[in-house]
Specification:
The protein is an alpha+beta fold and 290 residues long. It folds into 2 domains: 100 residues, 2-Layer Sandwich (Ribosomal Protein S8, Chain: A, domain 1), CATH 3.30.1370; 167 residues, Gcn5-related N-acetyltransferase (GNAT) (Aminopeptidase, 3-Layer(aba) Sandwich). It is globular.
Length: 290
């Protein structure tokens, strides 16, 4: 990877062509980056408007398909959504809830102390498998700064929501979501391997969806699609990564050369393409979760 920083991107905040033009102009003014990744970008109208904005400014932009994202329909409320899940899945979630209750589960939210809850989220993420992989929101200074910037931006309007599950007084799982235009966006979910048997990751997703429905949100977008989200899902959509070069520089030329070499070689091997997975950091017999 030629770029040394990947920041989070929320294409759902691009509501008009003017928003896309503002984004392109901001990126054109960046002087310290060789290239910038925008990911995930939903393949819809915002995808086209963002690309058009870069094209008008003469900024090189490359699009590559990435992954699917899971969505949940909550327009008819939590009870209707939950009863529409497979019976075996509902039973598994209820069993997890009972086990958590028996273990003295307590769920803290941003209402229980804002910055202090944020610190708990970061601490848990740092010791999760995602933290070990270097991809968790608490894994490094850059990721932690990004989460704190999100908190500063969205907490004044009560649009960012934190959930931390405590078991025996220790953080077992967390979720971070943001509400925008009637949709709740699931940004981050982590859990402590010591509590994997209780499925804290799934419990945090369920808690976040239930709370979003109570707030009147019509839909929940997980911003990713994994095997453990399959039974939560009502629908999905395709995303892409936009690689943007603020100027035609050496990194842009190297990217073109890499893309050409990839086409000649017939693509990357599956091993090279594979994203970091939980199974790479724990023993497979320990179960599976978020």
């Amino acid at each position: 990877m030629l770029g040394d920083e990947i920041m989070g991107f929320a294409d759902w905040l691009i509501q008009s062509q003017q928003d896309a033009d503002t984004l392109a102009q901001a990126i054109a003014g960046i002087t310290g980056a060789q290239w910038i990744f925008l990911e995930p970008v939903r393949i819809n109208s915002s995808h086209g408007s963002i690309g058009d904005a870069f094209q008008r400014l003469g900024i090189p932009c490359h699009c590559r398909p990435r992954f699917q994202c899971t969505t949940m329909d909550m327009s008819r409320g939590w009870d209707h959504y939950f009863e529409s899940r497979p019976s075996g899945f509902r039973k598994m979630l209820r069993v997890s809830e009972r086990r958590a209750a028996a273990a003295g589960a307590v769920v803290l939210t941003e209402q229980d102390g804002g910055e202090a809850i944020l610190d708990r989220v970061i601490g848990l993420s740092a010791r999760s498998w995602k933290g070990q992989a270097g991809t968790g929101i608490g894994a490094n200074d850059m990721n932690r700064a990004y989460l704190r910037a999100l908190w500063r931006e969205f907490s004044p309007t009560n649009d960012i929501h934190l959930n931390v599950l405590l078991l025996g007084g220790k953080e077992a799982g967390h979720s971070v979501t943001i509400d925008c235009n009637g949709v709740t966006h699931g940004l981050f979910t982590d859990f402590d391997e010591a509590f994997a048997a209780i499925s804290p990751g799934r419990l945090m997703v369920m808690s976040s969806v239930r709370e979003a429905a109570a707030r009147g949100m019509a839909s929940f977008d997980m911003l990713r699609r994994t095997h453990y989200l399959r039974r939560f899902s009502d629908d999905s959509y395709e995303t892409s990564r936009l690689t943007v070069f603020p100027r035609r520089n050496a990194a842009w030329l190297a990217f073109l050369a890499e893309a050409g070499a990839r086409r000649v070689a017939g693509g990357l091997t599956s091993k090279a393409r594979r994203r970091a997975r939980r199974i790479d950091f724990i023993h497979p017999e320990e179960g599976d979760d978020a």
